[in-house]
Amino acid sequence: MPEADDFVLSFYLEAGKDDPKTRELSFADSKETFRAELFPCLTEDAVLEAKVVADPARNMPSVEVTLTEGGKKRFAQLTQDAIGRRLGIVVDGKVVSAPIIRAPIVGGKARVDGHFTLEEAEAIVGRLNAYREEAREFLETFDAQRQETNEPRVEPQNSGDKAPARKSTS
């Protein structure tokens, strides 16, 4: 089973009261815990691009992610189905925020607000974008090898489904 810190970025829905399969995730800035469903509903696999954006209201940087087409659809559906529930936004295994979903998020973008320094936000963005670049390079290499052996082409799914568990090397 993948652990929360296997991912740079993951989203977990708050577990229901009667849900027997849950996990407790720690908040980054407190001793509070978040009772989450066992598996993330979205991970960095669904991120097409990330960038640092200014949050003038908090005078702190935030991380904005643009989702893949599949991630956009999955995020819209899950936020539609989970209105009134909390969504744990997890960076490196720690919950940075857990807002209540008030409406479906359909635009394909999400902003991650934590108590990040500019350097921390830039590091998160760099790792998210590097993950996407690694995946693209892997598919290009795989496709080149396939062409050499005349095997059928494998198309990337960009589904936003569970990413393979992996530890960051940063």
Give an overview of the whole structure.
The protein is α+β, with helices and mostly antiparallel strands. It has a single domain, classed as Gyrase A, domain 2 (2-Layer Sandwich). Helix content is 26%, strand content 28%. The chain has two helices and nine strands, in the order ββββββαβββα. The chain has helices at residues 69-81, 118-149; strands at residues 9-13, 22-26, 33-37, 42-43, 47-55, 60-67, 87-91, 94-97, 109-112. The chain has a four-stranded antiparallel beta sheet with strand order 4-1-7-8. A three-stranded antiparallel beta sheet has the order 5-6-9. The longest helix has 32 residues, at 118-149. The two termini are 22 Å apart. The model is unreliable at 159-170 (pLDDT under 50).
Report a brief summary of the structure:
The chain is α+β, with helices and mostly antiparallel strands.
Which strand-content bin applies to the residues? Answer: 25-35%
What composes the largest sheet?
Answer: 4 strands, antiparallel
Question: What's the structural domain tally?
Answer: 1
Largest sheet: spatial strand order: 4-1-7-8
Poorly predicted parts:
159-170
CATH topology: Gyrase A, domain 2
Shape: globular
Number of strands: 9
CATH class placement = Alpha Beta
Structural class: alpha+beta
